[in-house]
Amino acid sequence: MPIYEYQCTQCGAIEEAIQKFSDKPLKSCKKCSGHLQKLISQSTFHLKGTGWYVTDYAGKNQNATSASKKADAVSPASSTESPAAAATKASDSSV
């Protein structure tokens, strides 16, 4: 059942009520007996179980991306120099 919020037009108090969709809106404030006005509130929900993007599809692309990042981090020596050129460069710098 949804939670509805009402605000009193006289005292400004905000009241929450758990109601069915078919229930009539509240009319009077519990504190001052003033008129209540239904508020439009932000609602949230979370889809659980199989068949939803979060559980079935969200991790597939992330796993492939993280695997390629790990492979790049493990082998940073992927340069375009040949091994012979790298050895020549190393011997020149030691002299």
Structural features:
single chain; 95 residues; alpha+beta; three-stranded antiparallel beta sheet; 3 strands
Topology:
Blueprint: E1 3-8, E2 14-18, E3 36-38, H1 53-56, H2 58-74, H3 83-94
Antiparallel strand pairs: 1-2, 1-3
Number of helices: 3
SSE topology string = EEEHHH
Instruction: Give me the count of strands.
Output: 3
Parts with pLDDT < 50 across at least 5 consecutive residues: none
Arithmetic mean of pLDDT: 73
Distance between the termini: 81 Å
Structural class determined from secondary elements:
alpha+beta
Main beta-sheet annotation:
3 strands, antiparallel
Radius of gyration computed on alpha carbons: 32 Å
Molecular structure report:
The structure is a single chain. The chain has 95 residues and is of the alpha+beta class. It has a domain at 3-38. 35% of the residues lie in helices and 15% in strands. It has helices at 53-56, 58-74, 83-94, and strands at residues 3-8, 14-18, 36-38. The chain has a 3-stranded antiparallel sheet, with no helix packed on it. A hairpin with a 5-residue loop joins strand 1 (3-8) and strand 2 (14-18). The radius of gyration is 32 Å and the shape is elongated.
In short:
The protein is α+β, with helices and mostly antiparallel strands and 95 residues long. The chain contains three helices and three strands; from the N terminus they run βββααα.
